[in-house]
Amino acid sequence: xxxxxxxxxxxxxxxxxxxxxxxxxxxxxxxxxxxxxxxxxxxxxxxxxxxxxxxxxxxxxxxxxxxxxxxxxxxxxxxxxx
Length: 82
Fold this sequence. Notes:
The chain is α+β, with helices and mostly antiparallel strands.
């Protein structure tokens, strides 16, 4: 499942540089995650790096429109970074 950033975002810029797939971008007024690039860091890290660095606990949440298994996330990571 890809992640998404909700309205709790403070636009602090902590998440964008840690994304291994460059799925996070500056939005207006908050950051956004491209669900087609987000693999929840599967293939690169053990857990989503954006959630680790985000100062707002409930800001980065699963995107209900993009339910994917760990295998599907791994395949997406390999396509993006292969």
